[in-house]
Structures are given as structure tokens and as C-alpha cells.
């Protein structure tokens, strides 16, 4: 199910001709010695010539993993309702930038735009635009095809967006390589299965103190890689291990920290919110680094560049990196969030409207995949960054009785459906 929760089994072998990345890494390791796990992930996933995302990017049935939007349209619809609910709770501002980080095949954005179209009368006075942050040329082509029907073109006159188009429902869409290129303004951010693919550093507690886990050539098998421990402390060990850390093995994703800082400062300055959906933990798990190929677990050091590499998101670290600039909610389990968003009611409506048995069975199967604690229901979590005033009135302390109560945040509180 999706990229499985850590701890499942399975193996896949590399196909012939997929050794270019391994040869590239072997040359690099012979020249300069062991590299960090973060550098290994960066090379294996985003190297311009041989990286997994730049070359393959296998989302969906024919790829290496399936994500929630690929399983059921209901997932994306409920996310779309979350954004509209928050936009209304924040006073219906007249601009609305939907910014998605790592949009995959564009399925989630497509489902959200369908909801926006169905609620066009609610959004009629609002200037809505979509901004996609995508490094993979292959995936951006797939997104453009899905969202614009192929009507997207390079955008040479604008230095920040490398491509632009118009959605099938008439909403402008822009593509960027970095979140910093997205224009400032009132924005709602979405990161679904984005943070888990960012490079991590791995650390091990030893009798001599913390050591970083590195990747090196196996001296007994020169065409294979292995993990080694740094002989002494590395700069990352000194910067990323908290003094109060109690675990013996820790994974830290500094890039996730930087992105959360950027999101928090943008939300603090321009308003909006961010919704993060990913598998992860609240600072409790240890070794979660794993690979996926053809929907099976794959040795992370075998045939680099041919498999997806991923690690659970540490939400306690994201919360810390928001540095109090925004309020944070969650993480809460996917099944709780979707239940609070009214998935059961939506399922009933779809079942009533579906004429044939096959469609009904597919709907029930998709629901089970998303909600079953043994499948995706408990592995995936939702986490949000919101402006402080969304949760506490600025002058509540002085005159607690003068303000009307703030509406609950959809998904994180149970919605009372009238």
C-alpha cells in the first residue's frame, strides 16, 4: 500500500543497464572517500543525468509506488474542501495561491481543482492560481498533460516560473524549481508525500559518542556499497543532534527544516496555511530509511537511481523548525483526519450514486486502503501550520468575552455536519 510503512518485507533486483549511477558514485567514493546518506540520497534521486526522479519518477500502478490520490478521488476532494474551509475561516481573502510541493502526477491538484470548480460560486470574487514546485522535467510534463490537457508552454519571459498553462477549468498554473521562486502573497501550501523523499542524515550513538552513518564502497565487493560509521564527529553530528536526545539511532532531514522555516515565515508575513500529509512519527522512531521498486521494498544501497528512497518524517522536528512563527496542529492519523473531514458521508453519497457493482467494490476497496489502520490509516499523518490568530484571537487575553468563538480547524476537529 503506497510506499509501505517501515518494517515490511520484499526484494527487487536491478535490471541490466541500470548501473550508470553506481559507477558514478563509485568513482566519487574512490576519489573523495565515504559520503553522507544525505548526499547519497540527493545523487540517487535528483542527479540531473541518472537520478530516480529526473529519469523515472515512478508514481502509479506502473511505477514503484502508489499515493493516496492515485487510490481514490475522495482523498483529493476532501483536501480541496479543507483549503476552502480554511480560506472561509480566515475571512475569504480576495487572492488564493494554491502551492503544491512535489505534485507527483498532478492527480491531487486535479481533484482539488474539481472541488474548486464545483464551488465556483463560493470562490467567485477570489483570484485563484496554482503554483507547482517540481524539479523533475518528466513529472512536470505529466502534470501539464493532466491539468491543462497539454496546453502548457515554457515561460522564458518570467525568470522564476519555467512553465505556465491554464487548467481545464480556467485557472492559471505555474511551475517552479524552488519554493523561493513562488511569488509572495496569500498562499495555501500542500506537501503530500514530499518531505519523506528529502535527504536525511543518519546518526548512531556509540561508546565514543555520536557518529554519522556514511556510504562507502565495500572493499570485498568493489561493485557494491555498504554503510560505515564516521571515525569521529562530523559537522552534521555537532549541528543536528539535540543534547536531550534519548534514541540510539537518529535520522535528521535539515532540508525539511529549511523548507518549514520558509513556509512558516511566508505564512506569518502573507497569511495562509500549510497542510503536510506524510508517513512519519513524533520523534520516536529510529531507522526508517528504505527503498521501493515495483511496489516492493528494495535494498537502499542496491542499484541506486532505479528505486525510490524514502524515510519517515519526524514531525517533532518540523514543529521545532517552525520556531513559533506559526501555530502547528498534529500530527494526527490519516483515518482520524479523513473521518473528521466527512469521508464516511462522502462514501455513502458515491455508493448511492454508483450504478454498477464493480464501481461500488472499487469505492469500498479504496476506502479500506485509505482508512484501515493496517494499511494507510495509521501510517500516514496530517500536520498543519497556521497563523497564530487562526487559533487565538489577538486581543483575547484582554477582552475574552468580546470576540465570537473561532471556527474549528477542519480535519483536526470533528466537523458537525448540519
TrEMBL record:
Query: What's the top EC group for this one?
Result: transferase
Identify the keywords attached in UniProt to this record, alphabetized.
Answer: Methyltransferase, Mitochondrion, Transferase, Transit peptide
Among the GO biological process terms of this entry, one is:
mitochondrial respiratory chain complex I assembly
Entry EC number(s)? 2.1.1.320
The organism's superkingdom is given as: Eukaryota
* UniProt xrefs under SUPFAM superfamilies: S-adenosyl-L-methionine-dependent methyltransferases (SSF53335)
Bias (Basic and acidic residues) = 393-402
Q: What does this protein do?
A: Arginine methyltransferase involved in the assembly or stability of mitochondrial NADH:ubiquinone oxidoreductase complex (complex I). Acts by mediating symmetric dimethylation of 'Arg-118' of NDUFS2 after it assembles into the complex I, stabilizing the early intermediate complex.
**InterPro entries per UniProt:** NDUFAF7, NDUFAF7_sf, SAM-dependent_MTases_sf
Any one Pfam family here would be: Methyltransf_28
Q: Name one GO cellular component term.
A: mitochondrion
Cited PANTHER family: PROTEIN ARGININE METHYLTRANSFERASE NDUFAF7, MITOCHONDRIAL
Q: Which gene encodes it?
A: Ndufaf7
Q: Which organism is it from?
A: Rhipidura dahli
Name under which the protein is recorded: Protein arginine methyltransferase NDUFAF7
Q: Where is this region: Disordered?
A: 393-412
State the family named in the UniProt similarity comment for this chain.
Answer: Belongs to the NDUFAF7 family.
Q: Which GO terms describe its molecular function?
A: protein-arginine omega-N symmetric methyltransferase activity
Q: Where in the cell is it found?
A: Mitochondrion
Asked if the record carries the keyword Zinc, the reply is no
Amino acid at each position: 500500500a503506497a510506499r509501505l510503512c517501515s518494517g515490511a518485507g520484499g526484494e527487487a533486483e536491478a535490471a541490466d543497464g541500470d548501473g550508470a549511477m553506481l559507477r558514478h558514485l563509485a568513482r566519487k567514493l574512490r576519489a573523495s572517500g565515504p559520503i553522507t546518506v544525505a548526499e547519497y540520497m540527493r545523487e540517487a534521486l535528483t542527479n540531473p543525468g541518472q537520478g530516480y526522479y529526473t529519469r523515472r519518477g515512478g508514481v502509479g500502478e506502473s511505477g514503484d509506488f502508489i499515493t493516496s490520490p492515485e487510490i481514490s478521488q475522495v482523498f483529493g476532494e476532501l483536501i480541496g474542501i479543507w483549503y476552502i474551509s480554511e480560506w472561509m475561516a480566515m475571512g475569504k481573502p480576495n487572492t488564493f495561491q494554491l502551492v503544491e510541493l512535489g505534485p507527483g502526477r498532478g492527480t491531487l491538484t486535479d481533484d482539488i481543482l474539481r472541488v474548486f470548480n464545483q464551488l465556483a460560486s463560493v470562490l467567485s470574487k477570489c483570484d485563484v492560481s496554482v503554483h507547482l514546485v517540481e524539479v523533475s522535467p518528466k513529472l512536470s510534463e505529466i502534470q501539464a498533460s493532466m491539468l491543462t490537457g497539454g496546453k502548457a508552454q515554457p515561460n522564458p519571459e518570467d525568470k522564476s516560473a519555467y512553465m505556465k498553462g491554464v487548467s481545464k477549468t480556467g485557472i492559471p498554473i505555474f511551475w517552479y524549481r524552488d519554493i523561493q521562486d513562488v511569488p509572495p502573497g496569500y498562499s495555501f501550501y500542500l506537501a503530500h508525500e514530499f518531505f519523506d523523499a528529502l535527504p536525511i542524515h543518519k546518526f548512531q550513538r556509540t561508546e565514543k559518542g555520536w557518529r554519522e552513518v556514511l556510504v562507502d564502497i565495500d572493499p570485498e565487493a568493489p561493485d557494491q556499497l555498504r554503510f560505515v560509521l564516521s571515525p569521529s564527529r562530523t559537522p552534521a553530528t555537532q549541528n543536528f543532534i539535540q543534547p536531550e536526545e534519548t534514541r540510539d539511532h537518529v535520522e535528521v532531514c535539515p532540508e525539511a527544516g529549511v523548507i518549514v522555516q520558509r513556509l512558516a515565515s511566508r505564512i506569518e508575513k502573507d497569511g495562509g496555511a500549510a497542510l503536510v500529509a506524510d508517513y512519519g512519527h513524533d520523534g520516536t522512531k529510529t531507522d526508517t530509511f528504505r527503498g521501493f521498486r515495483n511496489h516492493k521494498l528494495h535494498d537502499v544501497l542496491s542499484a541506486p537511481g532505479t528505486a525510490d528512497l524514502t524515510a519517515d518524517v519526524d514531525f517533532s522536528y518540523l514543529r521545532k523548525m517552525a520556531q513559533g512563527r506559526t501555530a502547528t496542529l498534529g500530527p494526527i492519523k490519516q483515518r482520524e483526519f479523513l473521518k473528521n473531514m466527512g469521508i464516511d458521508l462522502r462514501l455513502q453519497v458515491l455508493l448511492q450514486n454508483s450504478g454498477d457493482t464493480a464501481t461500488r467494490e472499487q469505492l469500498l476497496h479504496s476506502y479500506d486502503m485509505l482508512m484501515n489502520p493496517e494499511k494507510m490509516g495509521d501510517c500516514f499523518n496530517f500536520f498543519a501550520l497556521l497563523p497564530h490568530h487562526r487559533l487565538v484571537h489577538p486581543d483575547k487575553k484582554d477582552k475574552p468575552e468580546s470576540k465570537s468563538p473561532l471556527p474549528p480547524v477542519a480535519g483536526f476537529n470533528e466537523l458537525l455536519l448540519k
